[in-house]
Design goal:
Layout (H helix, E strand, L loop, with lengths): L3 E9 L3 E8 L5 E6 L5 E3 L6 H17 L5 E5 L1
Antiparallel strand pairs: 1-2, 1-5, 2-3, 3-4
Length: 76
C-alpha cells in the first residue's frame, strides 16, 4: 500500500521555509527547512518517511526552478 503526503508553504523568511504537511491533505505537522544547510526538521521532532518525502520534493523543486514551491505532493 502506498502513501500520499502533501505539503503547503505557510511561511518563508530569509533563513528558512515552513511547510504544513501530512497524509491525505490533513496538514497536521510542520516542517522547517533551513535555506543555508538544507536541514529539514519537523516541529514535533519526528523525522519519518512523510517528513523526508516533503523535504525531498521541496529540494527537487528548488533545484529545478530556483525557488521554494507553494506546495508539494508525494505519492508512492
Amino acid at each position: 500500500m502506498g502513501m500520499m503526503v502533501s505539503g503547503r508553504k505557510v511561511a518563508e523568511t530569509a533563513d528558512d521555509v515552513r511547510y504544513e504537511f501530512g497524509f491525505d491533505r490533513r496538514f497536521d505537522r510542520v516542517l522547517i527547512v533551513d535555506k543555508r544547510t538544507w536541514q529539514a526538521v519537523p516541529e514535533d521532532g519526528e523525522f519519518d518517511a512523510a517528513a523526508g518525502a516533503v523535504a525531498s520534493k521541496v529540494k527537487q523543486f528548488w533545484q529545478e526552478r530556483g525557488e521554494f514551491p507553494p506546495g508539494v505532493v508525494f505519492s508512492g
